[in-house]
Structure formats: C-alpha cells, structure tokens
Amino acid sequence: MMRPKSTMELVPGDDETYYLNMGPQHPSTHGVLRLRLHLEGERILGAEPVIGYGHRAHEKMAENRDYLQFLPNTSRIDYLSGMIYNLGYCQAIEKAMQIEVPERAEYIRVICAELNRLTSHLLWLGTYLLDLGGFTPFLYAFDDREKLLDILDSVTGSRLTYCYGRFGGVSMDVDDTFLRAAADYCTYFRKRLDEYHALVTHNIIFRHRTKGVGVMGPELALDYGVSGPCLRAAGVARDLRKDEPYGIYDRFAFDIVTAEGGDCFARHMVRMGEMEQSLNIIEQAVGGIPDGPVLAPKVPKRIRPPAGEHYFAVESARGHFGMYLRSDGTDVPVRLKLRTPSFVHVATMPVVLPGTMLADTVAILGSIDIVIPEIDR
Amino acid sequence: MSDPTDYAFFGALLIIGAALGIAPVVAPLFLAPRSTGAKTHDTYECGVDTEGGAWMRFDISYYLFALIFVVFEVDVLYILPVALVFGDGQYAWRDLIELSLFIGILFLAIIYAWRKGVLHWRAA
Amino acid sequence: MTAPHATTQFFHTFDNPWIAIAAATGALLGFITINALWLIWLERKVSARMQRRYGPTEVGPFGLLQTLADVVKLVGKELITPDHVHRPLYLIAPILAFAPLAALLSLLPIDADWVFHDFDITLVLLLAFSGLNVIAIFAAGWGSNNKYALLGAVRAVAQNISYEIPLLLAVIPIVLMTRSLSLHEIASAQSYPFILVQPLAFIIYFISATAETNRAPFDIPEAESELIAGFHTEYSGMRFGVFFLAEFTNMVIVCAVATLLFLGGWKGPLLPGFVWFFIKVYGLIAVMMVFRWTFPRLRFDQLMTFAWAILVPLALVNLLVTIVVLKL
Amino acid sequence: MFRETLIGAWSLLVGMKVTLSHILRAPVTSQYPRERIEMSKAYRNVIRLIEIEEIGSHDCIDCQACVRVCPSDCINVEGERPDGMRKKRATLFEVEFALCSECGLCLDVCPTNTLGYSREYDQAGFRRDDFLYDLLDEWRDKEEGVRTRLREEEAQKAATKAAAASKVTAARKAKDEAAAKEEGPAAAGDAGNSAAEGEA
Amino acid sequence: MELGVQYLFVALVLVGGGMAALSRHVLYNIVGLGISLFGMAGLFLQLGSPFVAAMQLLIYLGGITVAIVFAMMLSIAMTLDPPTRTPVKTGFAAVAALTFGVGLHGLIGTASFAAAPPAPTDAWAVAHIGSALLERYNLVFETLSVVLLLAIIGAILIARPDRRGDAA
Amino acid sequence: MTQTPEAATAAQTTEELLQQVRPLVHLDSLENLLNQARANSLWPLTFGLACCAIEMMAVGASRFDLDRIGAGVFRPSARQADVMILAGTISRKMGPVIKTLWDQMPAPKWAIAMGGCTIDGGPFKYPGQYAIIEGADKIIPVDVYVPGCPPRPEALFAGILKLAEKIKAGRKGPEIAA
Amino acid sequence: MNLESFLLLSLVLFSLGLFAVLAHRNLIAVLIGVELMMNAASLNLMAFNRFSVTDPVTGQVFVLIIIGLAAAEVAIFLSIILNLYRTRRTIDAEQLTELKG
Ligand code: SF4
Ligand code: SF4
Ligand code: SF4
C-alpha cells in the first residue's frame, strides 16, 4: 500500500520551498478544510490536509448522552446527507436491540433517504460548478434542491439537520401529498437532468477541466478505503445498498452506477447516474408503500443495547458510513466510533494531488465531495 | 508629423485619468474609520499566518510564453505599417510574396513552438 | 495620411485648451461613472434573470441605485495598507490600471461627426495603452506581496500578453482592408459591417478581448475558487473599487473597438448614429455577460494553449487568406 | 484539434441556450420581507406551549419529562401545585432557543401533548440572550382564570370521586388504574415514570 | 508648456535611467527601465513620430519589460539581498562610464551638424514606413523575420529544461 | 483572545470594543449618507463553518436571492468584505483564524452570528465539551444574532435586514444586555 | 530642444547604461544596462532623423529595426541567463566567472 510520506519529509527545507495555504477560509475548500500545498511553479509537489478546524467532538458527545439524546446529532455529522445518517443511526440501534420496524416506516425511510441523497448530490453539483467558475449551474442546482427541501420539510420540519428517525420507525407519518410530491419531483427532475447534461456534462470547458484530472485508480481507492461515488468512479461496483442491503433496499431494482477512469469527470458521471437511480428507487418506493403504523409498538423506554460490540453501516451520499458501538449494557455508550467516508477521501489527497497543477486542486477537492464536520467529527 | 497639441490633449487626459483614479482613493482616508486589530496589517492568507515570502519561482512556461510573445509582437507590429500600403505600388505581386513570406516565417515559429511542446503547459 | 480633421473634433471646437480639458474631464467623469453604474446594474440584472432571480430590487426603483450605494459605501470604507506591501507599487497600481483607460475613452469616435479626438494612429495608440494594463496588474500583484495576489498577477500578465497577439492579428485584416489606423476612418470606410467578410477575425477578436478584460471564462487571474481574488486580494475599499471601475471601462473600450472595426460603428438605419453605436457596444457587452454567467472557467494552462495553439494559427491563416484575396 | 474546437463551440452554444431560455421563465424568488410564507405543518422552530382545548390554556404539568430528554439542556421548567389542585401547573417555562437543536424529542415525551412548534421563522436579535423565551408569557394573564376553573373541575371530580369512594374498594382500584392509563400511553421513553410522578 | 512637457519627458528618461543603472535592487532596476522607456516614448513623440513612440510602448514596455520581469521571477535574484558591490569594480565602472561620457561629449562639441529643414508633415505618415519596409528595406524586413524566428528557436532551445520534467 | 462584551467595562468606548478609530472627518449628515449606503450594500465574506453555511448559501441562491437588498456580493477576500456571517460551529482551532480574518476586514465592519452554535455553542454545548468556542462574541464583537439550527434562510435574511436597520440608525458595536 | 541637447541626453543615458553593464553583478541588471544603451542609440537616431535629414522615414525604420533586434536579443540573453541559473544556481556575474573552468 502506498503511504505518502508526510509532505514535510518530502521536501528538504531549502530556501525554495514554497507553501501555499488553501483555507481554512477559502471559497472552495467547502468549509474549513485547510490544505497546505507545497508548490513548485504551478505544480503541486505535496499536499497536506490540515484538519480539525471543524472539530466539534461528535464522538465524545455520544459518550456523554444516552442513545436517544445522541440522535439529533447524527444529522449534523454529515449535514448534507443528514437524513441518511439519522436513519442509519436508528437502524444501527435497532439492529443491536433487535427492534422490528414496521413496513411503512421502512418505505418512508427509503424515500426520505433517497430524497436526501438527491439533495446532497445536487448540492455537490452546484458547488462543484462554482468551484470551476460556473455560477449559474450552481443556482439552478440550488433551486432544484429547494424544491426537494420543500418536500422533505413538509414531513420532517427541517431543511437540513433532520431528526426524523426514531428507534423503531419514524417520528411522523407521511401523507399522500408528500408521496405525490415525491413522485412528481421524479418526473420533473428527469427533465432537469437533461438540462444539466446540456449545460454541464457536455460543456467542453467542463470536460477539459475534469477529464483525466485527479485520477484515483481502483487500487489506490481500495487501498485507502475510498467508498461511495469516488470508488464507483474508479470502476469498482460497490454499494452497500446492493452488497449488504440494509433496511429494505433489496426490494428495489436499481443499478450500481460505475464509471471508468477514476477522474473528476467519472465522479461527476457517477453522481449524475446515481441521481437517476435514486429517482428510480423513489418511484418504486412510492408505488409500493403499504399502509400501517410508522413506529414499532414495543420500543423499550430506555435504550440499552446488550453489552458488547455492534457494527452497522449504511451507504451515505458520500460513501460508507459505519457505526461501531461498544456498549456495556447501560443507556450511555462506552464508545461510538464513526467511520466516515470524507475522512478517508481527504486522506488520499496527499497522493492524488502531487503532480497536478494548482488549478486542478479545486477541481479534485471539489470532486471528492467532502463535508468538514464529518472529517473532524 | 501630426499636430503635437493633439497629443498634448491626450496626455492631459492621461493625467486627468490619474487624478480621477486618485480622488476616490484619497477620500476614504478622511471618511472611513480605521481598524486597530492586532492582525489588520498582516498578510491575508485565508486567515492563517503566512509562511515564507510571497515570492516564488514560477514555472518556466510563463517565461517561455512571455518570450514568444515579445518576438511575436515585434513581428505583428511590423505588419501594421506594411498593411497600410499593401498592394499600393506597382509591384503588387511582390508585396504579396513579401508579406506571405513574412507571415509564413511567423507560422514556422508557432509550429516550432508547438512541436517543442512549449504551447502545452504540461509537456514543459 | 493625416488625421481626419474634416470631422468636428471635440478638442477643436474650443479655442482655449484649458476649457477643452475641463470639458473633457467633466465628460469623462460623467461617462465613466454612469457607465460603470449602469453596467454593473445591468450585469447583476442579466445574471439574475438568467438564474431566475430578481437581482437588486430594493435600493431605488428597480434597484437602480444599488451600484451607487456600493460605490458610496466603498468610499466610506477603510483603506488598509498592509505592513508587508511594497508601498510605491501597491499604491500606484490602481491608478496605473485606471488612468490609461480613462484617457483611451476619449479616442472613441461615437458618431460620424462626433469625435472626441482622433489621430491617424488611434488604433495603435489604443493597443499600446491597453497593453500597459499588464504593468498595472503586475504592480498590484507584486506590490501586494501576497502569495495569492502574486500568483494571480503572474497569471493575469501571462494571459493578457498571450491574448494580445491574436487580438493584433485579428485587427490587421481590417487595417489591410481600409488602409487606415484611424478608428474614425475605419468605421467610415465600412459600407457594410466588416463582420460579414471577416467573421473569423471578429470571433478571434472578441474572444481575445474577453480574455484581455479578464472576464469569465477567462477570469483566471481573479479566479475566486482558487486564488481568492487574484491580484487584488489585498486591496480594500475604493482601491479595489478603482480596479473594478477599470475593468468595466476596459469592457466598454474593447467592445467599442469591436463595434468600430467589425460592426460598422455608428452606422445603422433610422436611429441617430450614437444610439446605434451604444446599442452595438452594449449588445456586445451583454454577450460577454452571458458568457460569464454560463461557462465554467478554463484552467490556466488550457487558456494559454488555447491562445497560442488555436487562436494564433487561426488568426494567421485568416490573415494569409485575407492578403491573398485582397490581391486577387 | 479543430474538429474538437468546433464540437466544443457547439457545446458552448447549447449551454448558452439553456441559460438564455431561463431568462424568459419567471423568477423563482420569494420576496421574503414583502411576502410571508406559510410554513409546513411539520415545521420546526422554537418550541411553544399549545392550547389544550378542555383546559383552555396550555397543559404543562411540570413533569420535567421534556427537561430530562432534551439533549441540549435548553428547557427549564418550574412548577407548583396550586392550592387545592391535584395537578401541578408550570410557573416558569424557559427555553433557550439558541441551544435547541429542533429535534422534537421533547414533543415526543410530553405526557400532555402540550408542546408544539412556534410558527415563527425569522427571529433575529441584537443580543445573545434575546432568545431565552419565556413560553408562559402569552398564557400568564389567563392563568388565574384557568386555575380557578381547573380547581372547580377538580373539586367536582373529587366530589364525584368521593361519592364513588364510598362504594366498594374494588371499584375504586379499577378507577385508579383507568386514571393512570389515561396519561400512560401518550408518554414514550422515560416519560412514563414522570407522568406518574406528576399524577401523584 | 510645450517645453515643459519636453523637460518632463527628459526628466523621466534621466530619473528612470538613473534608477535602472544605479539602484542595487533588480526590481527597482526594472521599474527604472520602465520609467525611462516611457519617457523615451514621449521624446519620440516630440521628435515627430507617434508611431515609433507607440511601438516603443507596445514592445518595450508591454513586452520586453514583462519578459525581464518573468525571467527575474524564475531566477532567485529577487529574494537575494542585493549583492554587495566590489568597490573596485564599481569605481572602475564609474570611471569608465565618465571617461566615455566626457570624451564623447567633447567629440560632439567639435562636430557640427548641418541642420536640415524640417521635413513636411506628410513625410511622417506611417504609410511611408510601410512602403519603405516593403520596397527600400525589403531585405531587412524579411531578414528581420528570420532573425526573430531564430530568436524564438534559440531561446526555446536554451531556456527549456531538459526532459527530466524538472521545471526549473 | 479579546474580552467578551460582558467583560467590557463601562470605561470602554465602542471604538475600543470594535477596535476602530473614528474617521478624521466626522460630519453627522455625511455619516448618515454613508450609513445609508453601507446598510444597502453589505458584502458578506465567503465563509462557512458548518451546517449553517449551507443555509447561508441557500440565501444567496435564487429562491431567497440576497442580491435583492444588495447583499449578494460574496467576497472571498476579507479585505473587501463588510460583514462576516459566522455560519456554523466555531472550533477552538478556528477561533484564532476568525479573529485574524476579522482583523483583516476593513472598518466599518459587522458580524452576524448565525445559528445556535455561534450564539452560545448551541447543540454542541455539553458538560465536557472541549472543542468549541461557545459563542462568537467571545472572539469578535457581534452585531446581530440569528437563532435556529440551522436558521431558515428567511431568518438570516431578517438578520441582515436587522443589521441594515441598525446601521441606518447609526448604532455600532455589540449591544450589551442591560 | 535642439539636436545637441538630444545628443547630450542620449550620451548621459548611454553612460548610465555602460555603468550598469560594468558595475552590476546581477546579469539581469546588466541586461537592463544594455537596454539603456540601445535606447540611447535609438534616441540618437531619432534626433538626427528629425533635425538633419530630409526624409524622416529612414530613421524611423531604423529605430523600429533596433526595437526588433532588442527584442530578439533580450529573448536570447534571458534564456541564457535562465539556463545559467538552472545549471549554476546563480546569475551573479562574478560567481559565474569563478565557476568557470
Ligand atoms: S413534558 Fe410537557 S408537561 Fe412535562 S414539563 Fe415538559 S411541557 Fe410540561
Ligand atoms: S426540540 Fe430538542 S433540543 Fe429543542 S427543546 Fe426540544 S428536546 Fe430540546
Ligand atoms: S447551529 Fe445547528 S445547523 Fe448551525 S452549525 Fe450549529 S449545529 Fe449546525
């Protein structure tokens, strides 16, 4: 496995070493990541992500609160796919405690999670174009995202930091308006996708900026534990929703979108394809949703997972989100370790960035789609 | 020889332009409050302290482009006066040949640079 | 060839040069301010509509006073001169950027007999002074002594000089056709807009001009997402504002030159000449705006390669074809 | 090379067509300060006390369930047992909105379902302690009346109860159970105990 | 007024020249060169040839200075403290320059130049330069283009780093 | 770090608190005019810290369109910004950075604390929390607070309008609770 | 101003250039000296052109040619400097002499 030497070692400290700080306050480090770039001319010799500017002690917090009280926090770890994290955490606890979730709740969970995945990918598309200098696609993407948020808002009451899941189900039943809105959105968004392709994917400048840039090959990706769209862009068809279906994902027909090349363009294509697959899933789920309760009837008042270790993982918009839980049988976890995708992805930067040009930095950094608190936890 | 006053007028406008540029920059000195923060006058670099000087050794490609530019500009500017009289005289064909030769040689320069990969940054 | 004194030159309508200069100052000041105010407003509105929003609406009717508020605010804003800058360069850069452009405005013939001032070599003069732009940018970047600014400045300079070549090459066919370096003569010589016979030259000119003004998709030097604000990263308040003014003035100049060289200047049916002139100029500017709000930006090396490997050969071919055709 | 340029130029034109076509479509902007929008039913903001019909006011019984469940520790409830009443009434209900994470757990546990979300959506203030809300504010002036009425009701109930008390002990037991159940199912989580506590 | 402008340009040339020659910091050398070149363009204008003046601005200021600046950025000269001067060398240079200047001045003093009547305004037109280039000096014209081509080739050959990819 | 507003003694002037010096020329009418302009042209610094930053972006987007009141010009360089919207959690590591950025903004400048986190730590305030700074006002003088987690875009909009109102009224600096 | 004063000016400029060439150790500064000298020559030509020639074209053409040659010269000279810098890590004229051999 290739391990980058720290960039500090790579460079003897002669008077020509030139460091450029990108971030923490930088329009395209998506929050407060700081990249310390070592440059020669326009070429990057080394890159060192400096993290911790967004550290909010999420994991520590879990040790200070009981299981239920940690719930609202899950959606703040990765605020872009908060719903997936939130529901994932519920599922993890349910698995540990062997709570049965009603059918209807499972369907609602899938719909909401996929809608959330759409919002996340849309936001990525927008900000990525912003990184590349295209302002208008950013606003279009945000506009479409607003429509999605309206749908989600109507049932969860929040736009970003959802706390919708409950152990054993979801906090509120959905009504027909919601389902219809979700289905309508699918039809609408398919049309929009074409526009995005015309405006972005086919754009020659965009292609030139992204093709062959920031190549993350399958070996590198697997070595580092890259997951999600970044891994699939390298041609590896891995998706927890298919490989280890959790919830009721095994009931839906959808494809794992992969692309060849592992470059920024491949990642773009994978995300675009995934949006389409999400639409498929939502349509199927809306069509097949049964009636019934949305909360399991017999949920213990105090959540006390059996002593021992538990692990559960879901596919978030960014990749493999795993929760490793150690319980001593009380209602406060001993340790809750979160395995978050962005952390891994950012760790590949010291190998992916060197050799590229300064201008590629933003293209690459943007394409791996990071969320800072998820890195810093 | 053109009327020098014409150019004097232009020069005056240059100075006026400078004045117009200076005026709005001077006004704030009187009108604006001033900050006295500890780091107000430090280098701006995304909020962290900068390391080392701003000077860097740039890519050689920059220089090569500058160089081709200088030479090209000279060439192109030679064409300008010629363009004014091109084909005027009785030796129109000679003019054509001379000018196309000139442009052809320019072309050679571009082709050479291209072949050498100067025009494609990464190859440098 | 002498200067076309046949036309009423603004300067010569006054006996006393001082009055002429005072009048010119007033006119320039008025034009630059109003132009910038209205252009920035236009830009914000056009972009807003493209993005399905309204743009400024609250300040003044239709948000018309928005830019004014911005400018007044900038005037009342502190000017920070960081400790580490090379003061002379840092301070003079905005003025260097602005002064030549202001003077160049006076060279544009607006109507057949409404010439502010015209020389027999106006075109060369224009090119020479807009070429000085790079020096201002460089002074700004270097003077700021800031990594982002320096990087931005170097890129800007490299870009500007690269696009100057195709720009010049695109202008030469017109000179060949009209045998003149005076903008007024060139425009008058167009019985039909030259864009019809020189479409390629026009496209090359327009692309290069967009690049020369550092507008998207060629706005690498101030590429927000990479270099914060490029060469004016360390400039605050009105110093930054002056750069901004310069950019918009420059836009007018290049578009006006395009109009005069390729679109027949003030010529057009029905409406008076200067109206046509401004319609054409602002039309071109609007196209630039649409560019800006549609495209992502090119990477720097691609930009340079584009200039040298595509535009320059194209322009050379175009030039060759022109001289051959002119001869046949 | 040139072919690529042409295709590229075409792609740029197509892109411009998309953006230009949007000029003609109506803006999607909602003119916020001029237009007020209606929030969705589920909308979450700061919590507030909602009116329970049969009481004619909020029904916070100072059970502390919400205080205990709140992850952010942003609720502070104090209550008293008014003279002659069995149920407690809240005398102080403070929420520090700046701490709240809008999670809805407190709503879930409230035994009397008297918690809801405010419909407000654009609070902003000049001081950091502007967001310490006193939820009882809007109810205070009614409070005396409510209490009097509640007292009467309770007295009435007590009277009926007393009448019933004279009956067989078995019957009383059954009734007690029923009363406990009344509160019970509404509460989830740890609310069960506290609800009973409030009753006691 | 007229003379004043002329003296302004002369002053620019001299001040810039002084800066270019005497300052020990390369950056100021370059700035000085720029100022001096600008003044020179002004003088060319005074001497009757706006075209040459514009060329001076375009090529010297917009081109050559920029190239020098770029070259300076590539070499480390900028950050180095200006090298101390060897007094002997400086002294020698000063003496040599002075001797040369004074000597030549003496020479100029002895020579007398026949002043020709000023040429007609018409003769200054740019078009004449063009036809001169095409007719009288056509060989020079072509040779120049070859020279420039060779300059490009030579410069690229010399300046380009070897294939190691080490951009120097 | 600097003093919190609470710690500010009565002797401290607003200038000291803001670390600003009054302009040389100070005419009330002129100041009024400038304030009107300032209130209508608040350029925010492109600067997001966490979740709230997404809502801040949303305010700039088409649906809410901050540009309507002239505040849509996000400037990436602190040197050109007027208002710092602190959107998200301030970690201890980020604190000094924010202070630096604040210092580097030209006067007059304002700060908006957006979201619970920047007001007093929000959802992340718990016993044993070691990583965050509980409240932006511990580092810089904050003018307007916008609560919520995250606040709806409208709330930020309202915050900016409130700030504009404050500027128009000529008030400066943090307002310390009586 | 007459011819003589122009000649004098160009003489001063030339001397300055000469001084720069001789005194500076930094090769770039030396190049700047050379440029000054070339400019002095151009100025001379233009002055003669104006004051003592009947046809002003020749002088102008020659100045143009000088400018062109200067450009070529600068290109080559700078390239050599850069090459030297790359191989020797210095552009100090004195050190370069020492390194020779
Ligand atoms: S849970 Fe309900 S009844 Fe109990 S204290 Fe809270 S608001 Fe009052
Ligand atoms: S919504 Fe959550 S954080 Fe807010 S008061 Fe209720 S329990 Fe506490
Ligand atoms: S206030 Fe809430 S939404 Fe905002 S940054 Fe803090 S946790 Fe995230």
In short:
The structure holds seven protein chains of seven kinds. Chain A has 377 residues and is mainly alpha-helical.
Plain-language structure description:
The complex is a heteroheptamer. Chain B has 124 residues and is mainly α. Chain B has helices at 4-31, 60-85, 92-115, and one strand at 34-35. The longest helix of chain B has 28 residues, at 4-31. Chain D has a domain at 39-141: Alpha-Beta Plaits (2-Layer Sandwich), CATH 3.30.70. In chain D, 42% of the residues lie in helices and 12% in strands. In chain D, the strands form two sheets. Chain D has a three-stranded antiparallel sheet with strand order 2-3-5, with no helix packed on it. Chain D has a two-stranded antiparallel sheet with strand order 1-4. Chain D is elongated. Chain E starts with a helix and ends in a 9-residue tail after the last helix. Chain E is built from six helices and no strands. The longest helix of chain E has 25 residues, at 50-74. Chain E is globular, with a radius of gyration of 21 Å. Chain F is α/β, with parallel strands linked by helices and 178 residues long. Chain F has one domain (30-176): Rossmann fold, CATH 3.40.50. Chain F is 33% helix and 8% strand. Chain F is globular, with a radius of gyration of 16 Å. Mean pLDDT of chain F is 78; it is low at 1-11. Classes of the chains: A mainly alpha (377), B mainly alpha (124), C mainly alpha (328), D alpha+beta (200), E mainly alpha (168), F alpha/beta (178), G mainly alpha (101). The interface between B and C is large, with 76 and 85 residues. One iron/sulfur cluster (SF4) binds at residues 60-66, 77, 90, 109-112, 114-115 of chain D.
